[in-house]
Each structure stands twice: as C-alpha cells, then as structure tokens.
From TrEMBL:
Residues that bind heme b: 187
Name by which UniProt lists this protein: Peroxidase
CDD domains: secretory_peroxidase
Domain of life assignment: Eukaryota
GO cellular component: extracellular region
Reactions performed catalytically: 2 a phenolic donor + H2O2 = 2 a phenolic radical donor + 2 H2O
Alphabetic keyword roster: Calcium, Disulfide bond, Heme, Hydrogen peroxide, Iron, Metal-binding, Oxidoreductase, Peroxidase, Secreted, Signal
Protein source organism: Phaseolus vulgaris (Kidney bean)
Site (Transition state stabilizer): 59
Length: 319
C-alpha cells in the first residue's frame, strides 16, 4: 500500500472522530442562560394539555439520532423543490414538531441564532420523560443543526425484526445490546398503529401473545377495515402514559404489542435484562438516562458541518 494511502486511512480512523463537536452540560450557560428553562416551560405547557407528547418527542429524538446523527435533520419540512426525511417510510406518524417550533420561536427572541434545533429536541425529550415520571438527567449540549435531510438515508429497524437482527442497527451507531434493550424501554409510553403489528393477529395469531391482548388488539384494528383508517394501540398496555418499568413487566406477561418488544422478553440474548428492569424501576431509570445520553451523542456535528437554524423546519440557506 502506498504510504500516502496509509496516512489517509489513519487520518480517517484517528482524526475524523475528534472533529465532531464536544458536547458539554451547560453549553448555553453564558450564551443563553435561560435556554434550558425556556425549553422546559414550553414542554410543560404542551404536556399539561396533552400527556401523549412524551411518546412523540422520544421517538422524534430517536429517529433524529439514528439518521446521520442528532442534527435536527428529522425536523426539516420538504419543499416544492427539495424532499426531506419526512418523506421517508417510517415518517408519517412522527409527531411533536410544533413543540420544537414553539421553543425555537421563544429562544430566537431571547438569544437569536444560538440554540440549535437538535439541542432543543434533546432537551425537550429529557424534560418530557421526567414529566411522565422518568428520571431527570443532565444532558450535554452543543449540537449543531445539519445541512442535509434526505429520505434515502432513513434506515430504521422494522418492528418485525428479531432481537439479533435489530441489534446491528444499534451497534452501527456505537450502542450495545444493553443500550438497545434499555432504549426500547421508551416504549413504556406512546402508541403504535395497527399497520405496525397487524401481521401478528393474522391466521391463528401469534402464540407468544397473551390471548386477552390479542382480543383487544383485534377489536381495535377492526376499525382499520374502514378506508384510510389506522387505529392506535398503546405500546404499554398497563401504565400507558407513565414513564416506568411497567413495559418490561408487560413483556414478561406476553403483552407486547410490537413483535420486537415481545421478543425482548423471550430471546435468551435479552430476557435477563428484561427481568432485571421489570424487578427494579430505579435500576431501569438510571440505565435509561445513561443510554439516552449515549443516543443523544451519536454523530453530533461541529460548526464546520452544521449551523444553528433560525427555523427548525427549514435550512438557513434555502436549497
Ligand atoms: C429496534 C428498535 C425499534 C423499533 C423496531 C421501533 C419501532 C416502533 C414502531 C413500529 C412504533 C409505532 C409507530 C407508529 O405506529 O406510529 C414505535 C413507536 C415508538 N417508539 Fe420505537 N422502535 C424502536 C426503538 C425505539 C427507541 C430506541 C426509542 C426511544 C428511546 C423508541 C421510542 C418510541 C416511542 C416513544 C414510540 C411511540 C410514538 C408515539 O407515541 O407517537 N423506539 N416504535
Ligand atoms: C411519508 O413517506 C411516504 C413514503 O413512504 C410518503 O408518501 C408520505 O408523503 C410521507 N409523509 C409525509 C408527511 O411527508
Ligand atoms: C400495572 O401497573 C401497576 C403499577 O406499576 C402494577 O402494580 C400492577 O401490578 C400492573 N398490573 C398488571 C395487570 O400488570
Ligand atoms: C434497584 O436499583 C437501584 C439502582 O441501581 C439500587 O440502588 C437498588 O439497590 C436496587 N434495589 C434492589 C431491591 O435490588
């Protein structure tokens, strides 16, 4: 191998990772001291009207971080001339955008062009989880907003995967099996459309599903027979709006709505973790907070690859 090429490869391996932004807790302390307070107030006000925003924000943050990195690319609206991640398959149900818009509007008044949309999403998610009963954790900030939002880059795991087939999506982002099992605990809030689990109800049904749950889901999905309707079922059938470890308990009881969720409790790769989380809520909450910080650090941009959007739905320089 020519020396040049080896040098180039070494540069890629060792230098590139360090060009990513350094995140730190309190990044806005001097530039926008009230930034976290403002995000918190906006989230509180939305939550007081609609508890279900927690599921919306969590999933949005997850999708943001899993496509290119936590760079706010999930927030970009398609335009007449340019498409965006919102046009990709798993998009249609993503929600919570208006909360980010509200926080952004306020933050632009308070300290223009200072707080990134990617950070707003990370902070809003953290705050919403706490409002729903989860543990509060301090999160490092300083993310820049990305300059690209391409539906072709959206490659998210399908709910029909097995644990071992879902895992590579996480390891590709530097996350472990434990991180995956922990983060899927996010399914303790929020809901899924029938189209995401209906295959489990077909034929003789899925033998791994509690028959009582199957009956409930069949009834819910009956409405799907109407044109253009795709009803919702809670992912955690017991404490659907609480951020707690009940999700894992439900999986042990075979009350998983999504195939992947149910598999967590059955697969030898993950079932011990599920047992441990189901047995101890504080243990789950601690692990979840740590895993969220890892999730929130994926592929973060620095100022040479990103900027601070003035409107989270549009690039500063329209393309
Ligand atoms: C193997 C990985 C994952 C798969 C296959 C998966 C799949 C899904 C599916 C199919 C839905 C239902 C979407 C709908 O019908 O609207 C959903 C919802 C949701 N997911 Fe995941 N997910 C995964 C990982 C995660 C992670 C890591 C998080 C966050 C930590 C997360 C948070 C959520 C939340 C909160 C909802 C509810 C959304 C709402 O209420 O609008 N998921 N997920
Ligand atoms: C979501 O993606 C589908 C393609 O799978 C597209 O037809 C639809 O318009 C997108 N939804 C939104 C809100 O952009
Ligand atoms: C539902 O959750 C509550 C609170 O965590 C728990 O005490 C109860 O055992 C759960 N019920 C079922 C049927 O799982
Ligand atoms: C539950 O987890 C917490 C946090 O990891 C730990 O301090 C506590 O000892 C655990 N409780 C039990 C009963 O194992």
């Amino acid at each position: 191998m020519p020396k040049m090429m080896i040098t180039t490869i070494l540069v890629f391996i060792f230098v590139l990772p360090f060009t990513f932004a350094e995140l730190r807790v309190g990044f806005y302390t001097s530039t926008c001291p009230r930034a976290e307070r403002i995000v918190r107030e906006v989230v509180e006000s939305h939550f007081s009207k609609d508890e279900s925003i927690v599921g919306g924000l969590l999933r949005l943050h997850f999708h943001d971080c899993f496509v290119r990195g936590c760079d706010g690319s999930v927030l970009i609206d398609p335009t007449r001339t340019r498409t965006s991640e919102k046009k990709a398959g798993p998009n249609l149900t993503a929600r919570g955008f208006e909360i980010i818009d509200d926080a952004k509007t306020w933050l632009e008044q308070e300290c223009p062009s200072t707080v990134s949309c990617a950070d707003i999403l990370a902070l809003a998610t953290r705050d919403s989880v706490e409002l729903a009963g989860g543990k509060w954790y301090s999160i490092p900030t300083g993310r820049k907003d990305g300059l690209l939002s391409d539906p072709a880059l959206v490659n998210l795991p399908s709910p029909s995967l097995s644990v071992s087939d879902a895992l590579p999506f996480f390891t590709a982002k530097g996350l472990t099996l434990e991180d995956m099992v922990t983060l899927l605990g996010g399914h303790t809030v929020g809901f899924a459309h029938c189209s995401m689990f209906q295959n489990r109800l077909e034929g003789n049904g899925d033998p791994s599903m509690d028959p009582a749950l199957e009956q409930t889901l069949v009834q819910i999905c009956e409405f799907k027979k109407r044109p253009n309707s795709d009803p919702l079922a809670f992912l955690d059938q017991n404490t659907s709006f609480l951020f707690d470890n009940q999700f894992y308990h439900q999986m042990i009881l075979r009350r998983g709505v999504l195939h992947i969720d149910q598999q967590l409790a059955l697969d030898p790769l993950s079932r011990n973790m599920v047992q441990n989380f189901a047995a101890n809520d504080s243990f789950f909450q601690e692990k979840f907070a740590k895993a969220m910080i890892k999730l929130g650090s994926i592929g973060v941009l620095d100022s040479t690859d990103g900027d601070i959007r003035k409107n989270c739905r549009a690039f500063n320089i329209p393309l």
